[in-house]
Amino acid sequence: MTAPPATALRKLAVPEAFLHWSAYGARYQALLDAELGAPDVPAWLTRWSDLTAEVMDVAAKLSVDKDLHTADDAAQARYQSFVADVVPPSERMDQALKEKLLAVPGYVPAPDFALTYRRFRDEAALFREANVVLGVTHQEQMNRHALITGNQQVLLDGETLTIPQAKQRADDPDRAVREAAWRALAASNLGVAPGLDRVMADLIGTRWQFARNTGLGSYRDYVWKVLDRVDYAPDDCRAFHEAVRDEVVPLLSGMVRDLARDLELESLRPWDYNRNNLLDARGREALKPFTTGTELEALSATAFAGLDAGLAGRFGQMRGSGLLDLESRPGKMTHAYCAYFPVHNEPFVLMNVVGTAEDVRVLFHEVGHAFHGFYSGDAQPLVWNRWSPIEFVEIPSMAMEFLTLDHLAHVFSPDELARYRHKQLEGVIAFLPWAAQMDAFQHWLYAEAPEDVTVAELDARWLDLDRTFHPFVNWEGLDGGIRAKGWQYYHIFQAPFYYIEYAMCYLAAVALWRAAQADPAGALERYKAALRLGNTVSVPELYRAAGAEFRFDREYIKGLMTFLREQLA
């Protein structure tokens, strides 16, 4: 088994004392006991922000550590101990401190704190003690999902593989190899499905209890407030689902028909369709631009250097400071993400690379998130003002996928680069139906389905949606229920209702890239300027700062699909 980089392990080290409330309680109490008039607020906020950053920092490091070591009972126990011992009292203290701040007579927040102040007011109104206790249970349930999937293995041709390693074989140009890999993955997924069914049943009950404790009619209503979704409503999401169904699904269906024709296939079977990496129409081997994680770091560093010296410097900092853990190995969560350690303004990227072009794209995506952390952290001293609302947070990552396209000549030959670019554009079109399906499923689950919804009903609803948004995949003769288990996906368990943001931001990233065709330097400066704004302005203002519109309506989608068709042609 390949071990995590030693520098990464040092970065994640947390002294035992910081796992317990005793490390923080007295400082919280001092903030609560302090005399607080309007002139005192800025300095008091700085102290509170610094303490909050410490708690967030430890939580993030413990979380990453347990994701890197899903089979390590000690790592899991350290994280759960922190969640149980530190998180509840810190949430109670945060509520008391918000109430203290909101009660200060004559205090008017500065412009760069006004939005956070409003969010504090809304969060204070939503707070319930019962949900603090319930939050510990909720975290334990989500971690059960991480343990099941992190330890999942695939048996293929006598070998035991990780999920990413098996997925690599599922992209092989040889159809028989693809089918064997797909069936092995399906068997592995069906093997863990009963356990995930039980986790989901528990999560649904817990999530509805959050809503009941706050007197709201559904978990969707509760999440809408928790996520501060003030710029759009559920009806806008429903309109997005319909627009994707009517404008994108027919376009993607035509692309799939053309692909099947070029490959001399009657139709595409599940092992022929990967939304992240559509088959090559000429049946060529998948692009394999690197072998090891170290090689991926090196080729990415050159790409960032060609794009912008400042961005390259940040990536160099990550390489030299143990802030990257890229290679796939047993006992490591199979997802990719960017975590953030706020005390020293450090992002951390976890991936599972196996040498594909898709790994290159995901690296640029996750490091785009890292740039967001760096730039917002540099510009915004208060921890709550860093990053951004979630409707914007995927733009830095998705835009970086596009902005690096012209800086990969050292990675790919001209023909390979054209293929990579083509894949990137195809990927946007293929992603939107998936995003609409994911979002529609959650709207149904948490606002329309009964609280005691059964697993069979979950499967049936997912199957119905899949027929709507992916009608071009031929599942004839395939039983065993694997298609109906498509809802057993990371975000459904770990980040409820966080998915439509990917679609919003992909549309905006395409718009940014379109602008960069005419003015690359200006587009990059707007990109960095928007990142520096952090959480201090509204979602529409952030989009405008980046050079995009906050829109995901039918006409906007239709226009961007026309642009993508032209680029693909």
TrEMBL record:
EC code(s) of this entry: 3.4.-.-
InterPro entries according to UniProt: Pept_M3A_M3B (IPR045090), Pept_M3A_M3B_dom (IPR001567)
Gene3D superfamilies: 1.10.1370.30
GO terms, molecular function: hydrolase activity
Cofactor-binding details, from the entry: Binds 1 zinc ion.
Alphabetized Pfam families for the sequence: Peptidase_M3
Class of enzymatic activity (EC top level): hydrolase
Annotated ranges, domain Peptidase M3A/M3B catalytic: 171-560
Essential cofactor(s): Zn(2+)
The keyword Nucleotide-binding is annotated on this UniProt entry: no
Keywords assigned by UniProt, alphabetized: Hydrolase, Metal-binding, Metalloprotease, Protease, Zinc
Similarity field: Belongs to the peptidase M3 family.
Name assigned to this protein: M3 family oligoendopeptidase
